[in-house]
């Protein structure tokens, strides 16, 4: 048993943060209720986002609120702090936090002490100094971005339907996605599927009027599903008149014109950036060991190398893959590993507190599944290659089994069932992004931003 009060600080409320806290709640229930142990979870959002469902949320197959898991509800034995860690001094066991109240109070950042640290802030979008990207680019890592992109696509169809200017119409109906990984391919495929369906309700917009472009710097897309399935995906997308450009880079999107390295130019009002991620900035503001890519150097027991009482997993951690044949290989920073690592991490913290030997994390990569729109998909699981409807069905079954809590599983399943019985929703609620605009106008003021929020 743990004999003295211990504070476990978990930085991050994503896969690793949530699942580690859940594991610790289950294993340390008695100590948490008695006050012998306190778990503090610091997260910039009051929810965990199940990112594999973002493309379906963007396409309207799943409600946005069912893509997220409320932290306070599921972590009822933990203290949840909505804020961000900006610096960590592990030698002194202190973390510097900014919260929603920090700016209001005007007292500056606060410090919190801890005994055990779980550093799992995840990653952020990796951007490049491309002209116009900061002004016009749209990300795809959060549920807000996914729903904003859905609203934006439908608004562009509205613009194209009502304008008399051919140049504006062409730009509105051109959608450029940069990045051929999971996020880019699934987002493009789902939204193209949705837009093609929505076009039947426009008297002057047809599916063939829209131009969808996928830009990938490498010579293949979806490397996770293997080369053969990647080639099949390219063929499938091109069959749907999607312009897939491999070994091509975005060089500029200034003045609403996407300029590619192969010389192509696309006037467009939509540039979606999904070209990779990079470590969260807080990792560089610690005294913990990082590798050459800026991720925490970790052991197979999920401790930070060369340090006691510091743990990590997921995107933030470089963890050796003990199941790999070649030495020096690391676990891929994906959800499949993150969820399993979090459970092992929670168990190892309990072992450490109780003076027990730590367990080694090892998981043979099972494979990958990807959705290419309604009833279409690709999969490479346990060496078997699957495509079309069976792969799409596997994608849904797998992710339904992985989304946290029975509550979310039931709601997602109910929405899928209803969407199979009824027609798609094609409503844009872009004004939600600026809810006060209409009232400001009615009160005699000038709206601070364009209420439609066109990018």
Automatic annotation (TrEMBL):
Keywords: FAD, Flavoprotein, NAD, Oxidoreductase. One of its GO terms (molecular function) is oxidoreductase activity. The keyword Isomerase does not apply. Its EC number is 1.6.5.-. InterPro entries: FAD/NAD-bd_sf, FAD/NAD-binding_dom, NDH-2. SUPFAM superfamilies: FAD/NAD(P)-binding domain. It comes from the Bacteria. It holds the Pfam family Pyr_redox_2. Residues 7-342 form the FAD/NAD(P)-binding domain. The keyword NAD applies. Belongs to the NADH dehydrogenase family. This is NAD(P)/FAD-dependent oxidoreductase. It comes from Streptomyces bluensis.
């Amino acid at each position: 048993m743990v004999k003295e009060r211990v504070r476990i600080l978990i930085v991050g409320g994503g896969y690793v943060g949530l699942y580690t806290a859940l594991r610790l709640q289950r294993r340390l229930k008695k100590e948490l209720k008695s006050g012998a142990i306190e778990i503090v979870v610091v997260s910039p959002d009051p929810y965990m986002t199940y990112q594999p469902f973002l493309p379906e949320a963007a396409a309207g197959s799943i409600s946005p609120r069912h893509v997220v898991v409320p932290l306070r509800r599921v972590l009822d034995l933990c203290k949840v702090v909505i804020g961000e860690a900006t610096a960590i001094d592990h030698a002194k066991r202190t973390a510097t936090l900014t919260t929603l109240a920090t700016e209001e109070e005007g007292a500056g950042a606060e410090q919190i002490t801890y005994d055990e640290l779980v550093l799992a802030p995840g990653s952020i979008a990796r951007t490049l100094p491309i002209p116009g990207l900061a002004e016009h680019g749209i990300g795809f890592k959060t549920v807000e971005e996914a729903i904003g992109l859905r609203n934006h696509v439908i608004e562009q169809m509205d613009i194209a339907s009502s304008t008399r200017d051919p140049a504006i119409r062409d730009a509105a109906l051109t959608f450029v996605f940069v990045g051929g990984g999971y996020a880019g391919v699934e987002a493009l495929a789902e939204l193209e599927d949705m837009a093609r369906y929505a076009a039947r309700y426009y008297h002057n917009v047809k599916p063939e009027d829209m131009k969808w472009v996928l830009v990938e710097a490498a010579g293949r897309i979806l490397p996770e599903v293997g080369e053969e399935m990647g080639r099949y995906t390219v063929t499938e997308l091109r069959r749907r008149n999607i312009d897939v450009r491999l070994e091509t880079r975005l060089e500029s999107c200034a003045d609403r014109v996407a300029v590619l390295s192969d010389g192509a130019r696309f006037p467009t009002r939509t540039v979606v950036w999904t070209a990779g991620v990079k470590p969260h900035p807080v990792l560089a503001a610690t005294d913990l060991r990082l590798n050459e890519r800026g991720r925490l150097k970790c052991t197979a027991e999920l401790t930070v190398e060369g340090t006691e009482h510091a743990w990590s997993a997921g995107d933030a951690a470089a963890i050796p893959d003990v199941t790999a044949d070649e030495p020096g290989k690391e676990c891929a920073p994906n959800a499949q590993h993150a969820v399993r690592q979090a459970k092992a991490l929670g168990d190892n913290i309990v072992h450490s507190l109780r003076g027990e030997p730590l367990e080694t994390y090892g998981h043979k990569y099972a494979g990958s599944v990807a959705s290419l729109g309604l009833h279409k998909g690709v999969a490479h699981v346990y060496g078997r290659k699957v495509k079309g409807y069976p792969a799409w069905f596997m994608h849904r079954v797998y992710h339904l089994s992985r989304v946290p809590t029975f509550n979310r599983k039931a709601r997602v399943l109910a929405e899928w069932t209803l969407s199979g019985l009824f027609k798609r929703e094609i409503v844009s609620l872009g004004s939600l992004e600026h809810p006060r605009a209409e009232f400001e106008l009615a009160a005699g003021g000038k709206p601070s931003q364009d209420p439609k929020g066109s990018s």
